[in-house]
Amino acid sequence: MGRDETERYITVPSLFRCPISLDVMRSPVSLCTGVTYDRASIQRWLDGGNNTCPATMQILRTKDFVPNLTLQRLIKAWSDFVGRRADGSPLRGIPTVEEVNESLRRLSLEKDDEIRLENLSRIVRFAKDSDANREFLWKRKDFAPMLVGIIAAVDGGTRATAKIKLGLLAIMILDTIIKGGKERDRERLSKLMLTDGGGCLAALLLAIRRGNLKTKIESVRVLEMISFDAKSKEIISECDGIVPELIKSISSDTDPSLMEASLSFLITISTSKRVRSKLIAEKAITKIKDILLMETTSVAVTEKSLKLLETLSSKREGRSEICGGDGGRCVEGVVRKLLKVSAAATEHAVTILWCLCYVFREDKKAEETVVRCNGLTKLLVVIQSSCSPVVRQMAKDLIKVLKVNTSASVLSAYETNTTHITPF
């Protein structure tokens, strides 16, 4: 059994846990009431202006504390016996249900953000441990509203680091618990987060703008989870700054994991016609074009880029943006991905070209670009590929149109430059 598995099943003696943090004490000290705490936790409590013992709520005659050397030796002996973490710190067991319930109680009553942060960190460890733990938390009626309240309290102008950390932890818990969740869970969370006057959306936007990579991805995924129906998608897209920031996140120099999460969110909200128009106006197609023209992108990013472009091509202004300007570079990018990435990517690409060149045929330059970029040869291969019957029929439609309507000079150039194509 590896160290990670060993740590998971350690039972920590309750005497070794700090009554405030519920973690194994590093430096146990006793107050005049006789209760022992970890030095860092009780110091924060006292520095916060409190004059009572947290466990007994007795008024302290003195705020002095005495090191509990006997307990410290016992903790050290126990830690040496069960092993230590790689960084040398004492092991932390997974909190019990009783400890989590106590942490939740303290979160609802405690005013000190540092102590609330310790309790929420404990809940994070509990939630990450198992599906059963996550289900237990989510079934509590007070849990989701509490997390939403923590997130909504994050203010972009605040200097309260603990409050911001609380908000980021709450976002992390939501991402952990709801990921792949049921529709009713998404609906419930969506209603909670979108009826708070915009505080949650502002906090998520702040996390995307200023957070680290992990925080950005978690925040984008939470946004996608609460994009539950047409109304929620429009509310989110109309929140000042969210759509431009997410479109910025699909730049070619962005981390692929963040690009994938952002594209997935944009695809989700693009089912609304109003949102599609907004995405086009915010130049999402320009960003997609840059991705398609890159030589090296992940399969998932390419597939999602083409899927989003397919959705945007249903709007007239979207087709105009795809075909217009830049010498047809976006159409060229679509043709490049034919048979080069995956079956899904090829099917999205064929559908886009079918929409541009067969269904609407608003710009002859698109047809010429397809032929110039060796698209006819690729479409002939698509007909014989394992793509769906619908997509193979689309390819046949495209070949007929391209051969009939493309100028003789372009066709001549195509026949001269035709090369053998091998599907992915």
Automatic annotation (TrEMBL):
<dbReference type="InterPro" id="IPR003613">
    <property type="entry name" value="Ubox_domain"/>
</dbReference>
<protein>
    <recommendedName>
        <fullName>U-box domain-containing protein</fullName>
        <ecNumber>2.3.2.27</ecNumber>
    </recommendedName>
</protein>
<dbReference type="InterPro" id="IPR013083">
    <property type="entry name" value="Znf_RING/FYVE/PHD"/>
</dbReference>
<feature type="domain" description="U-box">
    <location>
        <begin position="11"/>
        <end position="85"/>
    </location>
</feature>
<dbReference type="InterPro" id="IPR058678">
    <property type="entry name" value="ARM_PUB"/>
</dbReference>
<dbReference type="Pfam" id="PF25598">
    <property type="entry name" value="ARM_PUB"/>
</dbReference>
<dbReference type="InterPro" id="IPR011989">
    <property type="entry name" value="ARM-like"/>
</dbReference>
<keyword id="KW-0677">Repeat</keyword>
<keyword id="KW-0833">Ubl conjugation pathway</keyword>
<comment type="function">
    <text>Functions as an E3 ubiquitin ligase.</text>
</comment>
<keyword id="KW-0808">Transferase</keyword>
<dbReference type="GO" id="GO:0016567">
    <property type="term" value="P:protein ubiquitination"/>
</dbReference>
<dbReference type="InterPro" id="IPR016024">
    <property type="entry name" value="ARM-type_fold"/>
</dbReference>
<dbReference type="GO" id="GO:0061630">
    <property type="term" value="F:ubiquitin protein ligase activity"/>
</dbReference>
<comment type="pathway">
    <text>Protein modification; protein ubiquitination.</text>
</comment>
<dbReference type="Pfam" id="PF04564">
    <property type="entry name" value="U-box"/>
</dbReference>
<dbReference type="InterPro" id="IPR045210">
    <property type="entry name" value="RING-Ubox_PUB"/>
</dbReference>
<dbReference type="InterPro" id="IPR045185">
    <property type="entry name" value="PUB22/23/24-like"/>
</dbReference>
